[in-house]
């Protein structure tokens, strides 16, 4: 097909089918033409082989492009058209070339609402035109090249590819944004008839060699065209970071298992087990064996049925995964980051159904995620203090509850809770002025530091203490600006090393707020200088997005036990979901396992209150309400036990402290301020098959 229209004048374009290069093509915009490179457009941008041609050299060139081209290929085509016209490519466009390579690898680097992401809008555009019968190729090219021109113009003008909304206000693209919005509603329908599991991946399937448990979503013939986008970014998945594992039956012959590349899960290794089942199924049908694709060209993130289709049913594939990954159902409606085990009767029915063909149902009718009403709970799933112990193996996600005498004995041992080296980052911001003035945060942070040093054995050199107005004679490690906080976390390993057998407490007392986004609101810590000399900077430079806190700490801090204490308004935005209502007070036998918890001062719609310095008597000792009761709960009596130590075992667990604070703060704030403030504990370790607890252990 010769293209004489303006954007591609002087070039001829042919459409390649089935990944085969058409005869006579001068340039082939396909990954096979540049083996080993993720971004073809980057090669075009750099004028490197096999795309080292520019200006007049492209006159009359015949360019082959796939029938459904990738964003990378369309951007490369746009660059070639610009070069053909003799236009210089702006340096800022290199970022788009790298972005298309990341997208080709399945990554999601965008920090704008999903329906406004460049890759999502392009995909909606391509699907709108090219999935029709017959495909509308001319209008696709017209819209796709106009899309590239819009993005290119904004990047050249200084827009940030990952952070700025490049499609907002563009009338030509609004219908594709609308299509994405509608497609998300279709995903909700797909989700309602899907299967959800926690999958236990062995260490061989992880880049780091550690066994992990990840959420898996299984969808049969999704109605949504961008189900992968919505599933990968679905905050309702256990852990709140989407479903990194997807099993999708696209039709009766094509089934694909994929992993989010960011998860570094090597699901392609399952191709061998699936291929063995495929061979048996084909042999029974008198057909030759055909291997499953092992994702070798996708970093091992795919396991896909043979090109000609699979002889396995969706149920048989799920049964294979159940055997290899010990699948556990996810209960429908569970809160973000909180895994609730399905009752024993439902689990037994599920196990039996897997063995008999998975729910023995009409294969054309997908099964729903397990219902939220458990019939009963087995001994293996109970974690309460009254549950009977099972000899030889831990019970429940935290193991057996340990009696107080055993815990006290354990503390005295060299490998007991005191063997965990404690670290802390404590921040108090009280340099706000005018209407933003706060009076207690620096005092809060100092009191927390002194308590940890005097009663809990923290070493001063292991505490990063950031306050912007230290008391006379009180030495701080710097000011708690957004940059200071983030750098302290980022450089934690350089300062303290890679000791995993340690704990890390992040404490923040100061302002918090939320920002009305174009499509999605978000909470932000508002530390030092937020309202001052950094006020005109973007929120990402002067504040810290609350939902990034846990992930940023994971990147910088190797500690196995992590707790965040957020004493600020709207702190519930840090997690954005319902927290734990049922808090247990015992120490579990698996206390050494990974623990990640966040205790917030209130929900994402609530203010956090402090004492008024002008009042004659303070209700909270000159502190904020939350910090006052945290300090009280951790205060140690002469007998060596803290006030929050419910079972007097000389250890305060994260849930004991949360229970203490949750019982007192709401009542006190109601009495003093006639307002609501509800501290909440959120567990980010609940999706793990074995989870530990953050511990405060008073020193003798």
UniProtKB/TrEMBL annotation:
Keyword annotations of the record: Membrane, Transmembrane, Transmembrane helix
Coiled coil (residue ranges): none
SUPFAM superfamilies: Caspase-like (SSF52129)
Region (Disordered): 370-402
Membrane-spanning segments: 339-360
Residue ranges of domain Peptidase C14 caspase in the record: 423-681
One Pfam family this sequence matches: Peptidase_C14
Keyword Transmembrane helix: yes
Highest taxon of source: Bacteria
PANTHER family tied to this protein: METACASPASE-1, METACASPASE-4
Descriptive protein name: Caspase family protein
